């Protein structure tokens, strides 16, 4: 017989604690995230200075979020692979490479969005 889990505010609050702990792990262990954070701050600052419109903000915020999401998923995959395959394993290495490739694609896509949004604004200033 299947048991139904009833909604619990305490359990929901605890899930946020776990999620924020994951974000803390990301920021305290992954050097690439520090680079992404600096770039995000620069992009947000440029957005204010260049007076981006609401649509442009939506694209930029989405792009920044996708990069951080890809980095956290990549990190989770790396930790999991290290757990299940602590010794060197060619297939485990491929899994890690694929996860890192996904994060790189997210970063390249975000940079492309940034160029599409910012180049015309910078061109107007010239």
Percent of residues in beta strands? under 5%
Q: What is the CATH top level name?
A: Mainly Alpha
Large-scale geometry: globular
Instruction: Identify low-pLDDT runs.
Output: none
Order of secondary-structure elements: HHHH
How many β-strand runs? 0
Helix content: over 70%
Cα-atom radius of gyration: 19 Å
Supply the CATH architecture: Orthogonal Bundle
Structural class: mainly alpha
Average pLDDT number: 95
How far the N terminus sits from the C terminus, by CA atoms, comes to 70 Å
Supply the number of helical segments.
Answer: 4
**Number of domain modules:** 1
Largest sheet: none
Output the CATH topology: Helix Hairpins
Notes on the structure:
The chain is mainly alpha-helical and 126 residues long. It has a single domain (13-125), classed as Helix Hairpins (Orthogonal Bundle), CATH 1.10.287. Helices cover 85% and strands 0% of the residues. It has four helices and no strands. It has helices at residues 9-29, 31-49, 54-84, 90-125. Helix 2 (31-49) runs antiparallel to helix 3 (54-84). It is globular and about 55 Å long. The model has no long low-confidence stretch (mean pLDDT 95).
In a nutshell, what does this entry contain?
The protein is mainly α and 126 residues long.
Helix-strand layout with pairing:
Blueprint: H1 9-29, H2 31-49, H3 54-84, H4 90-125
Helix pairs in contact: 2-3, 3-4
